[in-house]
Amino acid sequence: MNLNAYKMDGLGNDFVILDQRFNEIILTKEQIIKICSRSFIGCDQLIIINSSEVNDGDLIFYNSDGSESSACGNGTRCVAYLISEENNKKEINLRTKSGILNSKILDRNLVETVIGVARTDWKEIPISHKIDTKNLNLRIEDKNKNEYFGGTAVNVGNPHTIFFVDRLENYNLSEIGPSLEKNKLFPDRCNITLAEIENSKKIFVKVWERGAGLTKACGSAACATAFASKINGFTKNEVDIAFELGNLSISINKNNSIKMKGAVSNIKSIEIKL
Fold first, then answer.
1. Same domain, 237 and 266
2. Which of 6, 142, 177, 270 is 20 to 30 A from 78 in CA distance terms?
3. 249 has which bridge partners?
C-alpha cells in the first residue's frame, strides 16, 4: 500500500499527516506504530484529516505507540497551516475529540490557536479519586536522589501534570516520565512536564508525552504549564514557554481560555510504502 502524506513540525514536535477528506484510509494499530517509528518514517504523532460539512476538517491524533489522543496543540496548528495554504483562508476551524479549535494564520509559518478553557477539577483531569489538583504531592527524584513532592494537574483537552523545579538539568525525565505517566492516580495516563521558571515572562520546559515519550515540544503542555504557573502565582496571563528549538507564546483570558502562538515548519510531501 502506497500513501501520500505530509510531514510537518511545530518546534520539532513532528507529525505525519494523512489527508482522507477525499480518499478513505484504514490503518491498523501496527501500521500506525510502523509509520511513527524512527526506523521507518518517524514522528511523535500521526494525524488523520477527515472531511467535515461544518468545519475545515475533523482530526484524529495517534501517538507513536498506536494509542489515540484527544488533542494535540502543535498538530492542530500544523494542519491549520496546511489547509490554509490549500484554500488561502486565514482562519481555520478544526474539530478534535476535545472540541472545535479555531486557528488564525498571522504570518508566514506563524499560527495562533485557541485551545479552550483549562480544567482543574479532579474528575475532569481525570484522577482516580478526589484530591487537590494544585498539589498532587507526587514524589520525583533528581539525579542526586534528592526528593521533591508536588505536581499540578491541568486538563487542556488532554491531561497534564506539571512539576516546577529549580533546575531542569538536575532531573532525568526519561526515567521520571514513564512511571508517572502510568501512575495509578491517572486512569487515562498523563503527560508529564518539568518546568523551570526563568522569570515572570518565561518558563523552560521538558515534556514526556503519554504514548509518545520525550518530545522536543508539546503545544498542550505549554498551555497547561502556563495555566499551572498562573494559578500557583509564578506568572500572570501572558508567558513564553521555551522548548529546545523555540518558544510558544501563551495567553490566558479572564475566562481561563488559553491561546497559543508559535511557528510551524514548511510542508513536506512524502510517500509512505507500507
1. no
2. 177
3. 240, 261
What CATH number is given to the structural domain containing 71?
A: 3.10.310.10
**Whole-number pLDDT of residue 24:** 85
Q: Which residues contact 101 (CB under 8 A, 6 or more apart)?
A: 76, 93, 94, 95, 113, 114, 115, 116
130 lies in some domain: no
> Residue range 46-67: average pLDDT?
96
Output the pLDDT for position 93: 98
Q: Give the residue numbers annotated as catalytic, written as ranges.
A: 72, 218
What is the per-residue burial (b if ≥16 Cβ within 10 Å, else e) of 204-223?
A: bbbbbbbbbbebbbbbbbbb
Q: Report whether the peptide linkage leading into residue 187 is cis, meaning its omega lies within 30 degrees of zero.
A: no
More confidently predicted of 6 and 24: 6
Record the pTM.
0.95
What integer pLDDT is reported at residue 172 of this predicted model?
A: 97
Instruction: Give yes or no for a contact between 74 and 261, defined as CB atoms under 8 angstroms apart.
Output: no
Q: Which 3-state string (H, E, C) describes the chain? A: CEEEEEEEEECCEEEEEEECCCCCCCCCHHHHHHHHCCCCCCCCEEEEEECCCCCCEEEEEEECCCCEECCCHHHHHHHHHHHHHHHCCCEEEEEECCEEEEEEEEECCEEEEEEEECECCCCCCCCCCCCCCCCCCEEEECCCCCEEEECEEEECCCEEEEEECCCHHHCCHHHHHHHHHCCCCCCCCCEEEEEEEEECCEEEEEEEECCCEEECCCHHHHHHHHHHHHHCCCCCCEEEEEECCEEEEEEECCCCEEEEEEECCCCEEEEEEC
For residue 46, give its domain range.
2-115+262-273
